[in-house]
Amino acid sequence: MKRDADFDELARYSGEWMRGEGPESDIVISTRIRLARNLADFPFIRRCSDEDRLSIERTVRARMESLTDAHWKSAHYVDLEPLSEIDRQLLVERQLISREIAESDGSRAVAFDATEGYSVMVNEEDHLRIQVMKSGLDIKNTWEQVNRIDDMLEEVILYAFHPRYGYLTACPTNVGTGLRVSVMLHLPALVITEQMDRVFRSMQRINVTVRGLYGEGSQYTGDFYQVSNQVTLGHSEADLLALVGDEVAPRIIEYERKARQALLKNNRDDLHDEVSRAMGILSTARKISSEETMHHLSKIRLGISMGLIEQPDVKVINQLFLQTQSAHLQKLQGRVLGTAERHARRASFLQHHLAGKDDATWN
Amino acid sequence: MKCQFCEKPATFHITELTEPVGPQVMHLCEEHAKGFLNKEASPPMTAIASALAKQLGQSGDVLEELDQKECPVCGISFFEFRNSGRLGCPYDYTHFESDLRPLLVNVHDKTEHVGKKPTRSAGTADSLAKMIGLRREMEEAIEREDYERASEIRDEIKAMEDPIAPPSTPSDTQS
Ligand SMILES: [Zn+2]
Ligand SMILES: [Zn+2]
């Protein structure tokens, strides 16, 4: 493992899982699966002394370094404690680490690979949080990879496991499989046609959690929703994966497709107008907030996947979703920016990239 | 409207649907909204809280007794768990087993693990609990500046530690 990472370089590219390809990628942004694991011979984080946290971090690091797997050897291992706030924020924006671990104190670290398909957080809520992300709806490959990493780590790390309760976790809501599978969906048509409530209602009592980022009234919308399994104990990994991947996600995807078709049929001109206006604003604004950016990018993404506009490529939009976030923008600019400055630089960045130019010529 | 976690204006509104609580709306500033959405969805404290509320329905004496119950290994009290929603060590699942069961039923509707198991099991549950206990004793020894005792305990832990497995990982056999 490499003991550091080049954060300036990292900010310049989006991860493989954000490339906007893969099954159902017109609607599904990404699939993410994580496993919660704890070392058997340490207290859980809450009752860890500083010394315990340090020992866990060192033990995990040494044991990860003993692994001979070729892929693993090219992974980065980053100590989060001495990292600057902005670099930690960058890792949060890329979903390689959680905000919780970024903002907590004491010994903690993350191991992740160059294309960022996976990360292992050390000393988050649990000693280990192993996660794999892939573009589109790709439960099978995502699970195979996370399962393989888990098998590999298990060879060198003794997990806390109970014959009756399974993998033991700091919070009883994760006990058992320790598995959370999450699918991130882009559902603008369901939002526009005001059907999200109906979707929410139809998801009740089937053991899934739906979480969405949206606006109310004049607020901006991002139209992104995340569906995850709610329970972890008493159902096999295969059952949990099937629940989200074969049952729930396809159903929501179908609702969204229908809503998009209805929009095309009944409101094509209105929609096209909205998408074009979104392009207009992002291409000409001089100052713009992150939430307004997200709102318009969401509309453009919809316009592209519905064939209303041909430019830009959806890859460019995905990249902009990532790089217009605060830490990315500041890393690309090479210095810390205040809020007003950020809004101005974000507008400039959007204008530049929507005109088809690349990072190298932006300043 | 202010963000629920800080003083900044709430510009994002997040809906979360979790059984049995139903949809809940959270009002957050930009920064907290991003952290929240990037964070995986997990059945929040509400599920734990409602299970614990049932226990609160018990008479005061019974609850007070339960609150004072402590794990002999890590020292966490049930009161501390109730307040934080986080357990202190793996042994808590054994020590507080009957107290946690109603909560597991409430959250998962099940109490028995089905699925993957580790292939390797080194050490018994007792020896592992002992190691966690020793780590706590070592910490206490350091606190009272009894460094001699602390170093004895450290050696004792070292001797019990799981040695790094020999480097015969599956990747070798595959290639
Ligand atoms: Zn806030
Ligand atoms: Zn304990």
UniProtKB/TrEMBL annotation, chain B:
Domain of life assignment: Bacteria
UVR domain residues: 128-163
Source organism: Stieleria magnilauensis
Keyword terms, alphabetized: DNA damage, SOS response
InterPro entries reported in the protein's UniProt record: UVR_dom, UVR_dom_sf, YacH
Ranges annotated as spanning the membrane: none
Segments of this protein annotated with the region Disordered: 154-175
SUPFAM superfamilies: C-terminal UvrC-binding domain of UvrB
UniProt key word Nucleotidyltransferase: no
Identification of the protein by name: UvrB/uvrC motif protein
